[in-house]
Amino acid sequence: MNDRIFFSVIIPVYNAEKYLTRCVKSVCNQNYANVEVVLVDDGSSDNSSELCDVLAQSDNRIKVIHKRNQGVSIARKDGVQISRSDYVIFVDSDDYISQGLLRASEKIIEKHNPDIILFEAVEETHKKKHFERKYPYRDGFYTKEDIHRDILPTLIQADNASYFPPAMWGKVIKRELLLSNLLANTKASIAEDGASIIPCMFHAKSFYYLKESYYNYTYNADSATKKHKALNWDWYRIVNIHISERINLGEGDLELQLARKIVHDFFNTAFTQFYENEYRRANNEIMKQMEMDPIKTALGRVKFDRTIKAKLMVFALKRHIFFLLYLYSKIR
Q1: Residue pLDDT, tens place only, 68-83
Q2: More exposed terminus of the chain, fewer Cβ within 10 Å: N or C?
Q3: Does a cis peptide bond (omega within 30 degrees of 0) precede residue 294?
Q4: pLDDT for 120
């Protein structure tokens, strides 16, 4: 093995001083030399900025970018653009990776050269319980034909509401594939991962599913406080436009899959309007948005037959029974 950089691990950092050292050490302590760690300090207001510099001084494989706050999607793209390897791994600053990931990924790449490697994760819930996140794919290598047969039917959202894991974490991705498909938009503050992963997977010529849990996802109570705020109608819209512009919706049933996602995203935005608005005002805003495309067209096409929640969601929206959305907002 030569001394070239094999992996670039990109870690967006925003007010992450509590977990950042653990995250970075989990990469640097992999007993693997041919890796660089790119810390993208996205305008942190705590001590994360100084901590990034301290960590960089302790290991010459770590480099730091300090920038004004523009959001995680742009932070990721900035990190990828200065990376020097052919393969990129994203790790959120409050998470960490397990020993052996880089070595296992290197062996897969040397044998198969896949565009994307997906591996499993262990998730810590808010009650400090742990469960393994596994995926319904056979382990091993997939050709383009295999991807078309086994992955595309659930790439965006299938009739049973299943979908390809959209998170940026838990994957090894070819840098050139990322650069062509990454969403970088300051206005996209939710679901931006899927906006990049879906086009990457669509254009991937090969894929490998590594049936091992190498990623450790940490429940962050600070992030959870954001859940009772009304979502901006434009956030999902930006994401879905990005997806539609980068994949061929005529392939398989992807156009219908995107319509399902649009309806699901609309529902997720609609019920949150009751968090910050009085009932009548929220009702009126939901009705106004429903008269616009793409949701108007998507609702006319979509029905869910496989899950009760999805059936109720479509029923409430099509019949304008927004009181059900109001009730849903109260139990979330």
Answers
A1: 999 999 999 999 999 9
A2: N
A3: yes
A4: 97
Residues 279 and 192 both lie in one domain: no
Whether residue 202 contacts residue 155, with contact meaning beta carbons closer than 8 Å, is answered with yes
* Cα distance between residue 128 and residue 40, in whole Å: 28
Same domain, yes or no: 205 and 143: yes
3-state secondary structure of 298: helix
- Comparing C-alpha atoms, which of 307, 199, 298, 329 is closest to residue 317? 298
pLDDT in tens, 268-321: 999 999 999 999 999 999 999 999 999 999 999 988 767 788 888 889 999 999
**105 and 210 in contact (C-beta within 8 Å)?**
yes
Cα–Cα distance, 308 to 281 (Å, whole number) = 28
DSSP state of 126: T
Q: Is the domain of 195 the same as that of 254? A: no
Considering its fold, how many domains does the chain have in total?
Answer: 2
